[in-house]
Amino acid sequence: MDEVRVARIARTAGVSTALVHYHFATREALLGEALRHSYARAGAARTTLRAGPDTSSATVLAGMIEHCMPAPGRLEREWVLWVELWLRAVRHPELRPFAAEQYERMRVWLAEAIEDGVARGEFLPLDASAVADVRRNETRKAFEKKFLD
User: Fold this and answer.
1) Which residue from 10, 19, 60, 149 has the fewest beta carbons nearer than 10 Å?
2) Own/partner long-range contacts of 112-118 (Cβ < 8 Å, ≥24 apart)
3) At what angle do helices 6-13 and 27-46 cross, to 10 degrees?
């Protein structure tokens, strides 16, 4: 993301840099909106994963957890994008609400899948939000092991 330039974005979009700056006060604001759009599209696709008559809640939850791990290929690239968001949110306070929104979205997504499994009788009754928080923290630990060790 550090190589992204407003001039290149404007050229690709076929508009002037002045128009881009009219809509986005800073490059970070533009990148933040691009990330928001990207995450919203990916999140919409992910949140359609639901257990059905032929798919157990456990299978869906396993797929969701796998999707959150830094596996080689597309998932690893998505992980790098998450890392970019974390790092940028530290340096650019205007991105912090967006980062928090995305993490909350992930937590709700996981909690709803767990609640669905409880309702279907596949999982024992439990505090789905607490389990989702644990899962989110385990995802962060996997990142640290893969990229920081």
Assistant:
1) 149
2) 113/49, 113/50, 113/51, 113/57, 113/60, 113/61, 113/64, 114/57, 114/61, 116/50, 116/51, 116/57, 116/60, 117/51, 117/56, 117/57, 117/58, 117/61
3) 60
How far is Cα of residue 121 from the mean position of the Cα atoms in its chain?
29
> What pTM was computed for the model?
0.64
Per-domain residue ranges of the chain: 26-148
Considering the domain delimited by 26-148, tell me its CATH architecture: Orthogonal Bundle (1.10)
Tokens 């957890």 belong to residue: 65
Is the CB of residue 59 less than 8 Å from the CB of residue 51? Answer: yes
How confident is residue 49, by pLDDT bands cut at 50, 70 and 90? low
